[in-house]
Amino acid sequence: MEGLLRPIGPEEERTYWIRRGLLLLVVVLLLIGLGFLISSLGQADGTRVEAEPVSTPAVAPAPAEPTSEAAETVVRDEAVPVPSSARTDGSDTVAATGGAPAAEEEPMPPEPANTFHQEPPQAAPVPQGQAAPQAEAAAVQPCDPAALRVAVETQAIKVGGSAQVRVSVTNTGQQACRLTVDKNNFALTVAAGDQQLWSGNDCVAAAPARAATLAPGVSMNWTAEWRGEKQSPQCQGNPEQVGPGDYVVKAELKGVPAVTAKQTVQA
């Protein structure tokens, strides 16, 4: 008993107590590990799920085939059809085996005549909000001169050169309109002061007849050429070249205020 409380040995008393403590710790750890092992095995047994047996649907036995004797009986009990040649005087002939009389065949009704009737082709419907092409073309009215704006542009040239005069007529209205331009309602001229030197409607067609439907804000544009010449009387003989200076190009559409542009001819 004294050896348990006071260790006896050649080593120090502290060394023996450390050894006893380590041994006790190992025993405690073994007991704890054994407890965890037993607990894990118990949980594994508790969560085991046995597979339920799968029921196999019962298969109904196949019906037995009738014997040859039964087959013969069925055949003997059936009525024997009587051919149409055996009927006389409109009466039904009964088979010798005692079967029921055959039903008289009713004549098939005649097939109806072909009454197919083809409908005449109809015009494709016009989408809502859009007018038919003919109605739309008829609805476009000639342009109101008050809704038109004329513009003219040119550039400087040398003596003996040709000027390209650009003319445009714009629809400033709110509706589309039909515009026709020809020598009866349009004139393009070049003048020096009050003297007219050249007109596009005299010798050459500066503005050939043209027509177009102008939507709001759309312009009709074309280009006329002035060769820097002065027209001779009745457009006869060789035209005379103009000298250096500033000239006035005027575009005038009937009912619309005329517009002008400066045309410079350089030496």
Structure description:
With 267 residues, the protein is α+β, with helices and mostly antiparallel strands. Among the domains are: 2-41; 142-266, Immunoglobulin-like. 21% of the residues lie in helices and 26% in strands. It contains 4 helices and 13 strands. The strands form 4 sheets. It has a 5-stranded mixed beta sheet, with no helix packed on it. It has a 3-stranded mixed beta sheet with strand order 1-5-8, with no helix packed on it. A hairpin with a 2-residue loop joins strand 6 (186-192) and strand 7. The radius of gyration is 60 Å and the shape is rod-shaped. Residues 66-80, 82-103, 112-121 and 129-133 have low confidence and may be disordered.
Strand-helix topology:
Layout: H1 2-5, H2 13-46, H3 68-77, H4 133-139, E1 141-142, E2 148-153, E3 157-158, E4 163-171, E5 177-181, E6 186-192, E7 195-199, E8 210-214, E9 219-226, E10 229-230, E11 240-241, E12 245-253, E13 259-266
Parallel strand pairs: 1-5, 3-13
Antiparallel strand pairs: 2-4, 4-9, 5-8, 6-7, 6-12, 10-11, 12-13
Features:
267 residues; alpha+beta; Immunoglobulin-like; three-stranded mixed sheet; 4 helices; 26% strand; rod-shaped
The average pLDDT score comes to 73
What is the CATH third-level topology name of the domain at 142-266? Immunoglobulin-like
Overall geometry comes to rod-shaped
User: How are strands sequenced across the largest beta sheet?
Assistant: 3-13-12-6-7
Task: Please give a quick description of this structure.
This protein has 267 residues and is of the alpha+beta class. 21% of the residues lie in helices and 26% in strands. A five-stranded mixed β-sheet has the order 3-13-12-6-7, with no helix packed on it. A three-stranded mixed β-sheet has the order 1-5-8, with no helix packed on it.
